[in-house]
Design a protein that fits this description.
Length: 224
């Protein structure tokens, strides 16, 4: 678990394909990241670190460089792990730590696209187009993680896409400290971003759908 409070911005140094057993098909990749000021003194092999909001396991360390194995599933569901990219980093949460942001699992729900990133006074307004399946999990004044950063949703609206599909546009405000301490300040129009909805919203949506299904089944069994 994480909080969405970024403690360092690292740089992806390399991405190499992993060897797969004969006949097993393509494997994932191993990425090496310069963790900059994250500090690996208290990190051991097997620990979890959130990389742009994606929970990854440390498989090797050399100085400030940590390596992670990334599955094909993670590659497909995230904004990518290309060398040269700057990434937000956060160590896993301790039970004694302060929860400055919100509970973040490090499991990316989908990839959003930046529609707008503009200065507003001393801050910045970031508007992101989210996939339609995430729309029900995003609410005004609720929490969302964008590239691993805990943010508060200021506005949300649903709209029809050009292909007829439904999508959700939400807006967040970035204060100067957030822009300075994360890689979000490097976003541009159409930049892909990793999105993770609030855990509570995810469970409420599941409970509602399960309750509706159970109700329909009960009516069918009772003959009502």
């Amino acid at each position: 678990m994480f909080t969405g409070i970024i403690t360092a911005v690292g740089t992806l140094l390399s991405r190499e394909p992993l060897a797969a057993p004969p006949g097993a098909g393509p494997a994932g990749v191993r990425v090496a990241i310069d963790t900059a000021g994250l500090g690996l003194e208290d990190v051991v092999l097997g620990d979890s670190i959130a990389v742009d909001g994606c929970c990854l396991t440390v498989v090797a360390m050399a100085g400030a460089v940590a390596s992670f194995d990334v599955s094909l599933e993670s590659i497909a569901r995230t904004a990518g792990f290309d060398p040269g990219r700057r990434v937000n980093l956060e160590k896993a949460l301790r039970l004694s730590d302060r929860l400055g942001g919100h509970l973040v699992s490090g499991h990316v729900d989908g990839i959003g696209r930046v529609r707008e990133f503009v200065p507003v006074g001393e801050s910045w307004r970031l508007a992101v187009v989210a996939p339609g399946e995430l729309g029900a999990l995003i609410a005004p004044k609720g929490s969302i993680a964008v590239n691993g950063v805990s943010l508060t949703v200021n506005a949300v609206r649903d709209e029809a896409g050009g292909d007829g599909t439904q999508r959700t546009v939400f807006e967040v405000n970035l204060i100067p400290h957030t822009v300075a301490m994360t890689s979000l300040g490097e976003l541009r129009e159409d930049s892909p971003v990793n999105l993770e909805a609030d855990l509570m919203a995810r469970y409420v949506a599941r409970l509602q759908s399960a309750g509706a299904a159970a109700g329909s089944a009960g009516e069918w069994v009772s003959g009502r």
